[in-house]
Write a structure and sequence with these properties.
Distance between the termini: 27 Å
Order of helices and strands: EHEHEHHHHEHEHHHHH
CATH architecture of the largest domain: 3-Layer(aba) Sandwich
Number of strands: 5
Low-confidence stretches: none
Radius of gyration: 21 Å
CATH topology of the largest domain: Rossmann fold
CATH class of the largest domain: Alpha Beta
Mean pLDDT: 92
Helix content: 40-55%
Largest sheet: 3 strands, parallel
Shape: globular
Number of helices: 12
Number of domains: 2
Strand order of the largest sheet: 1-2-3
CATH superfamily of the largest domain: HUPs
C-alpha cells in the first residue's frame, strides 16, 4: 500500500501487437482498476531483450504500445505509466534479489523450459533470470496485487517466495503480492484457430485483430474468420469454437448475453453474422485508433508523458531500493 491506496502492478512486453483479446480481456479492466487502486503499468522493454530485437523497430513498437495504452483509456494522471528501462532501480534490485534466488528454482520455471526449446540457439542468462527481474518489478512498488495469466502464475509464486525469504532474513521490507482476482476478462481466441488464445505474437496476421487496425482490415479479417461447416449461429465451445468465439466478442462489446445474440441471429447465415461482429468491433475501436493517431503524431507530448511516468515510478522505486541497500549492509552516500 502506498498512501491510502493499495497498489496494482502490471507489465507487458512490447512485442507483437496489442490485440482485441488484450483490449477486451485486460485493458478495459485496467481502466476500472485505476479508479480504485494506485495502478502502475509498465512497458517491460528490458524483459523482451531475452529475444533478439531489431533496435529501430523495437523503439518504435515500444513507443506505439505506450500510445495505445493511453488510447485505450488509461489516464497518465490517474495511473503511473512508464518504461521499465527508464527506472534504473529495476536492474539494481534484480541483482540483489539474484542473491536470494536459487538456480534450481529458476531452472524449474516452465516458461524457461518452453522458451529454451523454442530458441535453442539463444539460451541466454537473461532467459533463465527473467523471473528475478519480474520479481524486482513487482517488489519495487510494494505491489499488493498483480493481475497474471496462467503463463505468469509460476513467476508470481517465485516472487512471493523471494519476498518472504528476504523479509525473514532482514525484517519486513517487501509487501508480499497476491494475484489479482477481479472481474474475469473474457478469453478471446484466434480468428484462424479458435482453439488457441488470440496472441499478440501470432505469425498469422489474419488470426488477430490489432486495436489500431484500419476498419477495412478488421472487416477483411472477420470475413475470413474460421467458423464451421454448419450455417446456423449457436454457442458450443467444443463443437462450434469459431462461432462461439465471435459470439463472445460480440457479447463483450454490446453487453448483450450470448442467448440474446443467438436469438437475434436465428435464421441468418454466417455472412450476416460476421458482418455484424466486424462492424461492432470497428465501431468499438474507432475512438481508440483516432486517439492513437493523435498521440503518435504528437511525439513531444507523448515523450512528456513518458518522462512524467518515469519520474513518478522512480520516486517510489528509489525509496524501496534505499531500504533494501540499508538492510543488506551496503554503504550509501
Amino acid at each position: 500500500m502506498i498512501g491510502d491506496k493499495k497498489v496494482v502492478y502490471s507489465a507487458v512486453q512490447p512485442t507483437g501487437v496489442i490485440t482485441l483479446g488484450n483490449y477486451l480481456g485486460a485493458l478495459k479492466n485496467w481502466v476500472k482498476l485505476s479508479e480504485e487502486y494506485l495502478s502502475i503499468f509498465s512497458i517491460a522493454d528490458l524483459h523482451a531483450l531475452t529475444v533478439r530485437q531489431v533496435p529501430a523497430e523495437y523503439r518504435e513498437r515500444a513507443l506505439s504500445f505506450y500510445a495505445q495504452y493511453i488510447a485505450c483509456g488509461l489516464d497518465p494522471e490517474k495511473s503511473i505509466m512508464y518504461f521499465q528501462s527508464h527506472v534504473h532501480e529495476h536492474a539494481e534490485l534484480a541483482w540483489i534479489l539474484n542473491c536470494f534466488t536459487y538456480i534450481g528454482e529458476l531452472s524449474r520455471m516452465t516458461q524457461f523450459k518452453d522458451k529454451s526449446a523454442k530458441h535453442q540457439d539463444n539460451i541466454n542468462a537473461g532467459l533463465l533470470d527473467y523471473p528475478v527481474l519480474m520479481a524486482a518489478d513487482i517488489l519495487l512498488y510494494q505491489a499488493d496485487y498483480v493481475p497474471v495469466g496462467v503463463d505468469q502464475k509460476q513467476h508470481l509464486e517465485l516472487t512471493r517466495d523471494i519476498a518472504i525469504r528476504f523479509n525473514n532474513a532482514y525484517s519486513p521490507t517487501f509487501t508480499v503480492p497476491e494475484p489479482y482476482i477481479g472481474q474475469a476478462g473474457s478469453k478471446i481466441f484466434s480468428l484462424q484457430d479458435p482453439t488457441k488464445k488470440m496472441s499478440k505474437s501470432d505469425p498469422d496476421a489474419n488470426a488477430t485483430i490489432s486495436i489500431i487496425d484500419s476498419a477495412d482490415l478488421i472487416m477483411k479479417k472477420f470475413k475470413r474468420a474460421v467458423t464451421d461447416s454448419d450455417s446456423f449461429v449457436s454457442y458450443d465451445e467444443e463443437k462450434k469454437p469459431g462461432v462461439s468465439n465471435l459470439l463472445t466478442i460480440l457479447s463483450c462489446i454490446t453487453g448483450k448475453s450470448i442467448d440474446t445474440l443467438v436469438n437475434e441471429f436465428e435464421g441468418k447465415g454466417y455472412a450476416d453474422f460476421k458482418q455484424t461482429v466486424g462492424e461492432c468491433v470497428c465501431e468499438e475501436l474507432k475512438p481508440v485508433r483516432e486517439k492513437y493517431n493523435e498521440l503518435i503524431n504528437n511525439k513531444d507530448y507523448l515523450y512528456s508523458l513518458i518522462k512524467q511516468g518515469a519520474e513518478s515510478a522512480h520516486f517510489i522505486a528509489q525509496k524501496t531500493l534505499r531500504k533494501v541497500y540499508k538492510k543488506v549492509g551496503l554503504t550509501q552516500i
